[in-house]
What we know:
Order of helices and strands: HEEEHEHEHEHHEEHEHEHEHH
Radius of gyration: 22 Å
CATH class of the largest domain: Alpha Beta
Largest sheet: 5 strands, mixed
Distance between the termini: 82 Å
CATH superfamily of the largest domain: Nitrogenase molybdenum iron protein domain
CATH topology of the largest domain: Rossmann fold
Number of domains: 2
CATH architecture of the largest domain: 3-Layer(aba) Sandwich
Shape: globular
Strand content: 5-15%
Amino acid sequence: xxxxxxxxxxxxxxxxxxxxxxxxxxxxxxxxxxxxxxxxxxxxxxxxxxxxxxxxxxxxxxxxxxxxxxxxxxxxxxxxxxxxxxxxxxxxxxxxxxxxxxxxxxxxxxxxxxxxxxxxxxxxxxxxxxxxxxxxxxxxxxxxxxxxxxxxxxxxxxxxxxxxxxxxxxxxxxxxxxxxxxxxxxxxxxxxxxxxxxxxxxxxxxxxxxxxxxxxxxxxxxxxxxxxxxxxxxxxxxxxxxxxxxxxxxxxxxxxxxxxxxxxxxxxxxxxxxxxxxxxxxxxxxxxxxx
Length: 291
């Protein structure tokens, strides 16, 4: 009898050790009897983070924009974060669905009995926090997961900054993430990377991480350099009045190609590469640099 009780106690301890509980960015606590093995990700940055922790094999479906690493393109595409294919997601019977906090699908998915974890990444601190939350959810050791990834990101941003010449520093930059124009402000992860690179963002933190601006605001700000990370817009399409902007007049504009645009606008493990891309743009258009 004693031996049976001991065995049951060991089993209980084993189950408890594998149980996972996470409080997402809505403040909702989600409990799992064991780390989820069947994952649907409806946000590209979360898809990339799961794979960067060497857990790609757990993904069973992704949103239409998740395209990195290449292997995820073979998975079922389940719509977008804002317009997911609910029936297709339910049919896959996932252990958890990863979404943006802004997603309107969370309630519908939960009403159908699915577990949802909503995460939001707007700043560097958010990225580090979300990586740790994912690592905890997936039961990935820090040495393999969040800590390792953040060290790579942090050291790469520092290295990119140190690689820049003095002429590239203090460049006044406007970064457009989407037509509107929607900009990356100082408080966004993009703005924080620019700051660490020594650039001056013309969109102040007071306007929020990704504000929609009046095009006249950019005219008045008159940046030295414009970066465009909108993957749907490969040619520079100036807004009314932009011909008078110094960056436009001097043709100091970086329009990132489709693949690079994905890198620079996604808050996740490829922020290390994003820092190098932005540093390359700053150096190319540094004062006095040949173009």
